[in-house]
Write a structure and sequence with these properties.
single chain, 382 residues, alpha/beta, Rossmann fold, 2 domains, 7-stranded parallel beta sheet, 3-stranded parallel beta sheet, 10 strands, globular
């Protein structure tokens, strides 16, 4: 079965078996199958470390040895497909997936709601904007994605993605504050004649103005509406760390982080960036942020020694509350050229690294909410 065949078969599958030899499917395919309620089994040669590492990176549900007799393998497949789980429930949810705004009073929380993943920064100059754009591009190959720019200090997506200033975040938040639906009218539309590669996902851009404050309560309501429409809502947030005098200035960022299913924190690939990641973790714990958070070093060099040193600095100082994982996003000349020319990077080592990180966050978000999804309508904003 190839990828198109898998995509067509997903609504009817109970169990998917992958091996460590053909490697037809990636972590994206496994995550996509699991979102349909499919139980994924990997058959692997346990004596081969490379095979074990490959299977671990896929995030499968169950691992079986390749020396297992065929009859026992078949029995394991049958058992995993009839263990009392309501395998049809996820399919019903997805088959009823809403492609337009749906808000039912204050009951925003729904079984088929999508995941809200926050992308934020511990230090500037790490390439957060380019990373979140690449993540949206990657996830849009499998899911319906909305990118929300909740940046209070220096929003740039309006020009970066050639969007019209009509609508956007200010208009959407105003509608949410009145208890009205903000989508799809609140989307930032493409300008006429915009270059290709920018219409793979929807965007809600902030106003390109001086530093402004985003209302946390209104943003929560808007994200609650968006999560009933999109499978993944990526939110680029502003700073979490700040002076005590600016405590309320970044209340919107804290509210998003407290309600997110998964978080990516960007920092520069140097000792100062590692220190900022440690500070961010302390501040996050104090603010009640409990979602799994990945530390991402932007514009990272190729030196394995430097990467391991940065990782060890963060791990040694986060103790019992570690990051869920680390990512090193390489310095890619394509990104600098694309930013200068107002283009979108569609391939290259940077996009591949961000894609792998986005897939990990998607898998963690889905697994962390298997019993209950986070309810944005109940997030504290004070």
């Amino acid at each position: 079965m190839d990828r198109p065949g898998l995509e067509a078969a997903l609504p009817d599958l109970d169990v998917l078996v992958v091996d460590d030899i053909m490697r037809t499917f990636s972590v994206y395919d496994v995550s996509r199958a699991q979102s349909f309620g499919v139980h994924v089994i990997a058959v692997v040669d346990q004596a081969n470390s490379a095979s074990r590492e490959h299977v671990n990176s896929l995030g499968v549900d169950q691992v079986l040895g390749s020396n297992l007799p065929p009859g026992e393998l078949l029995a394991a497949v049958v058992e995993s497909g009839s263990d009392g789980r309501d395998l049809s429930a996820p399919r019903r949810a997805l088959s009823g997936f809403v492609r337009g705004p749906r808000v039912d009073g204050q009951n925003f929380r729904r079984k088929e709601s999508g995941w809200v993943c926050a992308w934020t920064k511990a230090s500037g100059g790490a390439g957060l904007t380019e990373a979140v754009i690449a993540a949206a591009l990657t996830l849009s190959k499998r899911y319906r994605v909305l990118l929300v720019e909740a940046e209070e200090v220096a929003p740039v997506l309006l020009s970066r993605l050639s969007r019209s200033p009509e609508g956007g975040l200010p208009w959407a938040l105003s509608r949410a504050g009145q208890g009205l639906a903000a989508l799809p009218e609140g989307l930032s539309r493409l300008r006429p004649g915009a270059p290709a590669g920018r219409d793979c996902f929807d965007v809600v851009c902030a106003a390109p103005s001086a530093a402004h404050e985003v209302n946390a309560a209104q943003l929560d309501r808007f994200l609650a509406e968006a999560s009933t429409i999109y499978e993944y809502v990526l939110v680029e947030t502003s700073w979490l760390l700040g002076a005590s005098s600016a405590r309320e200035r970044f209340s919107a960022a804290r509210a998003v982080l407290r309600g997110a299913a998964c978080i990516v924190v960007m920092a520069t690939a140097d000792p100062e960036g590692a220190g900022r990641l440690v500070q961010w973790k302390v501040a996050a714990l104090g603010a009640g942020v409990g979602a799994p958070a990945f530390a991402a070093f932007g514009r990272s060099g190729a030196s394995k020694y430097e990467r391991e040193h940065l990782r060890s600095v963060v791990e040694a100082n986060t103790g019992r509350h570690p990051y869920a994982g680390f990512a090193f996003l390489p310095l890619d000349p394509r990104v600098a050229r694309a930013r200068w020319n107002g283009e979108v990077v569609l391939k290259g080592p940077f996009v591949e690294s961000v894609g792998a990180l986005a897939a990990r966050t998607a898998a963690v978000a889905a697994s962390s909410g298997s019993t209950e999804r986070r309810d944005f309508s109940r997030v504290r904003t004070a």
